[in-house]
């Protein structure tokens, strides 16, 4: 109530990206013991992909790109976090403005373009972090300047990121599905995924994240390619392709509520019960979270829902899912 009646109106007076940065700084400075007391409740630990998750609700990649607020996410009641997307070297991303709210649709447009501090800086930041008791994942991507038609160079970008970050992450996510890096989605093919996953594979669990536009035989074929190359699990979905000021961008939030569970159902039917699946897209309340779990997701991730519902959404969803989600251990 405090967030929706007071804090959200103040944040929404700011440019979307500026509000995003301000919120991260605020979280970084918030007393963690206070947050922890407000959000923590007893949850049954979920064992998945060799990792222990305090609950099923995670932070999606793209919100905390540079690992600034990891301990705050734990204190807010998240069961895991995915940082990034991180590229081998630092890059500024696309030109501003590159983020916009669609308040009526409870959605966000973004064309950030993998703006991040680079793998070495993030690795050092995580090395010095007092680690919270939940899994930390890192999403990895290619440098914007690496041509997508040079598959060897692309695979090397992912391999370089994995090598630098592996020691400081509990799992890695291969991002080939963001619409904000030119040509990136063209890597969602059997041959490209086999090369990238093979190059990025380490001893840690490795997930591959797909675009929601993939469906049917195409989705099943790329899922098979990723898994056969050594991926541990899959994530559905990234943002929907859209446009912002005439430029390609990603659409997230409530517009994905219908399509995201359907993609999850397709994957779960195809891969069976043994493959870990993470569901993302349009999750902003208990019913949407339960729909994704019922569609086959072992875990869920949120991002845009936090913008509209506030920082305690994860803790609320975790409590609601505790008694509703079907048990699964992979």
Write a concise synopsis of the structure shown.
The protein contains 12 helices and 14 strands. It has 330 residues and is α/β, with parallel strands linked by helices. The model is unreliable at 324-330 (pLDDT under 50).
The whole-angstrom Rg is 18 Å
Estimate percent helicity.
25-40%
As laid out across the biggest beta sheet, the strand order is 3-4-7-8-9-10-13-14
SS content category: alpha/beta
Terminal CA distance reads 37 Å
Q: What does the largest sheet look like?
A: 8 strands, parallel, barrel
Query: How many helix segments?
Result: 12
The overall pLDDT average reads 94
Helix-strand pattern, N to C?
HHHEEEHEEEHEHEHEHEEEHEHEHH
> So what's the overall shape?
globular
Uncertain regions spanning at least 5 consecutive residues: 324-330
Question: How much beta, percentage-wise?
Answer: 15-25%
| Structure summary, number of beta strands | 14
